[in-house]
């Protein structure tokens, strides 16, 4: 089990009493590159928040392998673009895991900030105020910050939104580079073609996992159809989920052969 | 030369109360102006105003129990301010209500209690004193208190600077890498209360927030970085205090409003002439570079 990065144990995440992720079990292998796909409201962002710890689980838990540091690029950043900061100030926040509150930023740190900007194609943007950046440039700036965080586990929530084709290519290249460095990466993506071309593994969510495993297998038409039937709206009077109601469903198969069945918990975890 | 000396130096050289007023108000600027910059950048400018009102019942309680004494009124104000800041902050952090609404609710309740307390025993003269302060009557005890407040403020800002900037710039990011987000918010609110309390003996509860916000708001028009903005705000605060005290001395005006109005003049000048002000934006618009 030493090559497991993340373990979900009966994880339920949500808002109020309504689950957005319902009884998720499974493992994320170290060094894996996984796309998280699903309809709006299927729990993708919620899962990301749960992993990074911004949202506390309603039940179950997310277990991070010891020593794993996460970097998180949220979908809806709470970034205040009117704050008087330069690109270099924003990217330097990524030094936090290394330098913390009081550690001095050394010359090497400043160099690594420049290199990170260079890597996302924003060399020379250091002194630009952040309120003068375009949407795509800002997204790349945030990628540079993730780069600087030097994390083992990288969580990107819809990083390609409102980003032009060339930039998407650049960012994908960066993600593949991270993959080559044996970092564990989870990316929420909408574009299925992009997923098929670039992501070895996929988790298909519809509050519960519909399928989880090798991308081509996961994105089979019948799985996508089942994911599409997912009912987005909460039901105010939905029955309470009984703790024992799902226990017998845990005899997971490997590599999700049960995808086609109307099984409560669809796919099993990756055989780790 | 003599007239210049008479206008600018003599009032401070000849009168002890003017010296103490100058020292007190300059020290206040040193602490309050950087705090004001962050208050503004967090879009909490009016929260500062609300907090200033919230201090009243505490100061009034001190006044009722001990009369017109600096220390009890200060401690009372501090307690009331902290209760309101923590209460409003907690409501906004842990419920769906935003900070503006919870702050308004808490400070209005607090203000009503304060007015009630003052009216029970005080005359309107006392109320005026609490509301408007007297920078010209700062005694050594008050100066020591202000000095302590400034020291605490500057040290706290230096320690928590990076977290405070991160919390303003990208709070979700800070939460993902550190647990300092909430503590830093409350420490910051504490600094706001501390500086308002420090200012209220000099400027009164109503106007102490002016020395905090106006220099900060004016500095916003001149620079696009936080550090220079804080320095500039302090300098504007200094200039306003000196100008205000001189104005008050020569024209026999109440000193508190004179200081705040001086800052107001700088604010309007900054709107017009600042590097990010109106006039500059108009002129630059006519020309553009090729890339």
UniProtKB/TrEMBL annotation, chain B:
- Name the Pfam families for this protein: ABC-3 (PF00950)
* Gene Ontology CC, one term: ATP-binding cassette (ABC) transporter complex
The UniProt entry's coiled-coil ranges are none
Bilayer-crossing regions? 20-41, 74-92, 104-122, 142-165, 177-197, 203-222, 229-252, 258-279
Where in or outside the cell it occurs: the entry states: Cell membrane; Membrane
Report the record's Gene Ontology biological process terms. Answer: response to zinc ion; transmembrane transport
* Superkingdom as given in the UniProt entry: Bacteria
Tell me the membrane topology, using the record's own terms: Multi-pass membrane protein
Query: Which keywords accompany this UniProt record?
Result: Membrane, Transmembrane, Transmembrane helix, Transport
Entries under InterPro entries matching the protein: ABC_BtuC-like (IPR037294), ABC_TroCD (IPR001626)
Question: Which family does the record claim for this protein?
Answer: Belongs to the ABC-3 integral membrane protein family.
- Can you name this protein? Zinc/manganese transport system permease protein
């Amino acid at each position: 089990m030493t090559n497991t990065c993340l373990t979900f144990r009966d994880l339920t995440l949500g808002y109020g009493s309504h689950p957005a992720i319902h009884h998720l079990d499974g493992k994320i292998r170290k060094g894996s590159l996984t796309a998280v796909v699903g309809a709006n409201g299927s729990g993708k962002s919620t899962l990301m928040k749960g992993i990074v710890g911004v949202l506390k689980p309603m039940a179950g838990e997310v277990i991070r392998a010891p020593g794993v540091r996460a970097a998180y690029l949220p979908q809806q950043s709470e970034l205040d673009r009117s704050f008087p900061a330069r690109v270099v100030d924003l990217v330097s926040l990524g030094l936090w895991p290394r330098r913390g509150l009081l550690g001095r930023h050394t010359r090497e740190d400043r160099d690594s900030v420049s290199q990170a900007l260079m890597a996302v194609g924003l060399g020379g943007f250091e002194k630009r105020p952040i309120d003068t950046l375009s949407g795509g440039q800002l997204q790349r700036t945030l990628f540079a910050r993730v780069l600087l965080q030097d994390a083992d586990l990288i969580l990107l929530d819809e990083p390609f939104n409102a980003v032009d084709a060339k930039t998407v290519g650049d960012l994908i290249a960066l993600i593949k580079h991270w993959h080559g460095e044996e970092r564990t990466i989870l990316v929420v993506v909408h574009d299925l073609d992009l997923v098929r071309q670039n992501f070895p593994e996929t988790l298909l969510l519809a509050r519960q996992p519909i399928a989880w495993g090798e991308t081509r297998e996961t994105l089979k038409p019948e799985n996508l159809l089942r994911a599409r039937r997912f009912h987005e709206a909460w039901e105010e009077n939905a029955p309470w989920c009984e703790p024992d109601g799902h226990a017998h469903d845990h005899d997971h198969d490997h590599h999700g052969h049960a995808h086609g069945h109307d099984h409560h918990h669809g796919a099993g975890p990756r055989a780790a | 030369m003599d007239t210049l000396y008479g206008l600018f130096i003599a009032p401070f050289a000849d009168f002890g109360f003017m010296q103490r007023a100058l020292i007190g108000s300059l020290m206040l600027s040193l602490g309050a102006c950087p705090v004001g910059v962050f208050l503004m950048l967090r879009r909490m400018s009016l929260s500062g105003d609300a907090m200033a009102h919230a201090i009243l019942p505490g100061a009034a309680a001190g006044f009722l129990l001990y009369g017109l004494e600096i220390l009890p009124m200060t401690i009372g104000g501090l307690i009331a301010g902290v209760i309101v800041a923590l209460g409003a902050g907690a409501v906004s952090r842990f419920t769906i209500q935003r900070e503006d609404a919870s702050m308004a609710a808490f400070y209005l309740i607090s203000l009503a209690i304060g007015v009630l307390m003052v009216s029970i025993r005080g005359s309107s003269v006392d109320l005026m004193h609490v509301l408007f302060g007297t920078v010209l009557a700062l005694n050594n005890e008050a100066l020591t208190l202000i000095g302590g407040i400034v020291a605490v403020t500057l040290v706290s800002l230096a320690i928590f600077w990076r977290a405070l900037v991160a919390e303003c710039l990208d709070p979700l990011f800070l939460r993902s890498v550190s647990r300092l987000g909430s503590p830093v918010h409350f420490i910051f609110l504490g600094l706001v209360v501390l500086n308002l309390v420090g200012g209220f003996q000099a400027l009164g509860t109503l106007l102490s927030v002016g020395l905090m916000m106006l220099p900060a708001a004016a500095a916003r028009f001149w620079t696009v970085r936080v550090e220079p903005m804080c320095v500039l705000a302090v300098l504007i605060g200094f200039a306003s205090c000196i100008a205000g005290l001189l104005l008050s001395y020569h024209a026999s005006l109440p000193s508190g409003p004179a200081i705040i109005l001086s800052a107001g003049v700088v604010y309007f000048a900054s709107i017009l002439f600042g590097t990010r002000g109106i006039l500059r934006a108009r002129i630059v618009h006519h020309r553009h570079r090729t890339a």
